[in-house]
Amino acid sequence: MSADLLSLIEQCRQDNDYDPLISKVPYAELIGVRCFATGEEMIFHLPPKESNIGNPTLPAIHGGVLGGFVEHSALLYVLLRMEEPSFPKIIDLSIDYLSAGHYKDTYAECKILRMGRRLANVSVTVWQTKKEQPVCTARAHLLLG
Amino acid sequence: MSEQEQVPLEKVRRMMIRFAEGIKHSEELGLELVDITENGLIIKLPYSEKIIGNPETGVIHGGAITSLMDQTCGMAAIRSIVPEFDIAPTIDLRIDYMRAAEPGRDVFALAETFRATKNVLFTRGIAYQDSPEKPIANGVATFMRMGLGKTIVGKDGQKKTTVKHVGKDSASTGEG
Questions:
Q1: Which residues make Cβ contacts (< 8 Å) with residue A96, sequence separation at least 6?
Q2: Which ipTM score applies to this complex?
Q3: Phi, psi of B13 (to 5 degrees)
Q4: HEC states along B34-94?
Q5: Which CATH superfamily is domain B2-163 in?
Q6: pLDDT tens digits, residue range A46-65?
């Protein structure tokens, strides 16, 4: 698996197309996570999808979907930085909802605050219109290997 | 608890089902209200291939558990203020994933409100397959009341003041 995953990741990097990696995980396909690299950085993208709506009146994205988006972004971000890649496991997640996640394009950026041999601490910022006005911020711990 | 007993559980159940109507992501996941408890409720997340997070093992993605937890805690928050009604977006949510869910089996979440003030509803939830004593995940979530009509639950569990603030822009933040 590790060798397959490594060659898949290398292919994704080469093509700057991460869809083959994302499509391996059914849940990521369900909510519609996308990602693209801008130089060394990765931006995760959640395009509007009707089945992600939590508040039909506003309409707004379900808080759980934003949580799932955060988790999967953190997971991919860490995976892409592992020497011997294997899907990390989520240990915990803490998410602060700062404003409504409107029914529109949503983006996430991850920052690894610490990555050891077994554990990674990742901070995630999610925004829609302006990065300076986050929709939510989150912190996750991932178990590696 | 005396006032709470005046609202039959069946009526609470109907109110909660109505509350969840139109939540498209809940429909997508197939979330189903299975029980109303004295202080909270239980929701089922049926197993399906589309929520798999690990294609090798078939274990479901933490994100699906997050949605289950957010929705169960959110509904437990609203459930605690019955017969009043309010909209209460999530302020924050914290989840500990304690073990992988066993593939092929449904997951349940039990959530309760342990404190309701005029502005904030404090909840906690447990996701499990066999019993709440063997949790898959533990959650804590806090919700902000928008103020459609306010009920305060005192420390003794008695519901007190009711203040009406109808007509505010009730949904300036999202469903949590």
A1: A136, A137, A138, B91, B92
A2: 0.95
A3: -60, -45
A4: EEECCCEEEEEECCCHHHEEECCCCEECHHHHHHHHHHHHHHHHHHCCCCCCCCCCEEEEE
A5: Hotdog Thioesterase (3.10.129.10)
A6: 999 999 999 998 999 999 99
Q: How far apart are CA B62 and CA A67, in angstroms?
A: 9
Q: Which letter does DSSP use for residue A73 in this model?
A: H
Query: A21 — contact with chain B (CB < 8 Å)?
Result: no
User: Is A73 in contact with B145 (CB distance < 8 Å)?
Assistant: no
DSSP B20: H
Q: Which residues contact B156 (CB under 8 A, 6 or more apart)?
A: none
Looking at the partner chain, which of A24, A62, A91 has a beta carbon nearest the beta carbon of B67?
Answer: A62
Count, residues in chain A: 145
Tell if the CB–CB gap between B94 and A93 is shorter than 8 Å: yes
Q: Which residues contact B48 (CB under 8 A, 6 or more apart)?
A: B30
B69 φ, ψ (degrees, to nearest 5): -65, -45
pLDDT in tens, B94-153: 999 999 999 999 999 999 999 999 999 999 999 999 999 999 999 999 999 998 765 556
For residue A142, which residues of chain B lie inside 8 Å, CB to CB?
A: none
Domains of chain A, first to last: 2-143 (3.10.129.10)
